[in-house]
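INTERNAL AUDIT FORM
Audit reference: QA-55
Scope: verify that the stored structure record matches its stored sequence.
Auditor: D.O.
Record contents follow.
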Amino acid sequence: MSDTVLSVWDGVDLNYHNLINIFLHHLEVPASFIPGSLLLGGVAWWWASRQGWNRKFAVLAGCSLALALALTVARPFGHFPAGGLSPLATLRVCTVGSISLAHLYEELNVLMLVPFAIFGALATRRPLLIAVSSMLISASIEYVQGATGGGECQVRDIVHNTLGGVLGVLVAVIVLRLRARQTDEITPSVAAGSGSSR
């Protein structure tokens, strides 16, 4: 694996051309995404049936989360400073970074949890739960990256990921309200139609 691919993966000089190159050199992403989707999608289907959530959207949320994990956690270890099993050592290798949307890498970090947040909020109808979950998922990913050396642990990534989660939740809230409004408009017309048929 070349240094160029490794540095590009971490966001240096990232563009759409070498983004394709990243996926060609990191076959662990699709290799982990497929079983991850089956596992998380299956768990989401089972849990949604127990909670009374929308199972279709729950499965899509599980698959979206599997993709995010495949892109961030399923990497070769040891290419970055690793904190190991000690939480304090892991926190020491984490950096703050600059909050910005000037580069494609940063924009992709914002988009990473948007699908999970949209489908999760549509499935559960609990936007606050999904927004908080997005932050916790992002923090967990950064911690694993810092502990294993499979990525660079950065606070800015948590901010970017959480921002994307909040945006996804807002999209889901808008969709839910539009669907509720359509239902409210259809119900009186159905009632009027059923009354006139008598």
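Auditor finding: record pair retrieved intact. The longest helix spans residues 155-196.
Action required: none
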